[in-house]
Specification:
Blueprint: E1 11-17, H1 24-34, E2 42-49, H2 55-65, E3 69-74, H3 80-90, E4 95-99, H4 110-116, E5 122-128, H5 134-151, E6 162-166, H6 182-193, E7 198-204, H7 218-235
Helix pairs in contact: 6-7
């Protein structure tokens, strides 16, 4: 376990987005409002995963007015896993945090994760009173249960898109997960197997105000199952 970092160490914050033009300005504004209370040295990255609704144009306008904001666009939709890889590879600070770009989280909760970091390699948020339809909550519960059994990592909410890592706890080159959502389980499993302890902190989950959720498509679910089986085999 590495030495604990200074409480105001630098942090990279990134948001994976796909067709979030109606939400992304609010998400960035929220980050800019709360990050100065955590550290003076931060950057905000937006990974636009091939959006077709003008997400990049909204971010570009904010980049012009704030040098801390960077846009990293994919020319086509590569999936959530690849968006996270892009974010981790581009992050330049001591700590790396990511949150979903749909506006269902607020970085007002990030300070709680930072406070829980000492003595741990990473901190996982879990959604208190998840503000999603019943079928998504059921799918999330089943998926988390599967990950706990297959990979042996006792997490409360594996796919909660609100996670904080020390930079050295992430090895992007090792990742095998593709376009699906299994990358969250893989990130946790690999870091844990490398000797990094983790803490879990409850965070507020807000109803989606605009746009459509895309993570529950049959293709995404199938890819996630295939990736989990590949990951389990690789760990044997």
């Amino acid at each position: 376990m590495p030495n604990d970092l200074n409480p105001r160490s630098s942090i990279s914050v990134f948001f994976p987005c796909f067709n979030e033009a109606a939400n992304v300005e609010r998400v960035i504004t929220d980050a800019l409002a709360h990050l100065p209370a955590i550290t003076d040295d931060f950057e905000i990255l937006v990974i636009d995963d091939g959006s077709t609704d003008g997400t990049s144009q909204v971010v570009e306008a904010m980049v012009l007015s704030n040098e801390r904001v960077r846009l990293l666009p994919h020319t086509e939709n590569l999936g959530y896993g690849m968006a996270l890889r892009t974010g981790f590879q581009a992050a330049q600070k001591d700590l790396v945090f990511y949150a979903d770009g749909d506006g269902q989280f607020s970085l007002s909760d990030l300070s709680s994760l930072v406070e829980a970091l000492p003595g741990h390699g990473f901190v996982l948020g879990y959604r208190r009173n998840r503000a999603d339809p019943l079928y998504r909550r059921l799918n999330g519960w089943l998926w988390t249960g599967l990950v706990r059994v297959v990979l042996g990592v006792k997490v409360r909410d594996v796919d909660c898109g609100f996670k904080l890592f020390r930079r050295e706890a992430i090895d992007v080159e090792q990742l095998i997960s593709g376009r699906g959502a299994a990358i969250s389980a893989e990130l946790i499993s690999r870091a844990h197997r490398s000797g990094y302890r983790f803490a879990q902190v409850g965070v507020t989950h807000y109803p989606r105000k605009s746009g459509e959720q895309s993570g529950n498509s049959p293709k995404v679910i199938l890819r996630s199952f295939v990736d989990i089986i590949r990951l389990w085999r690789g760990f044997q």
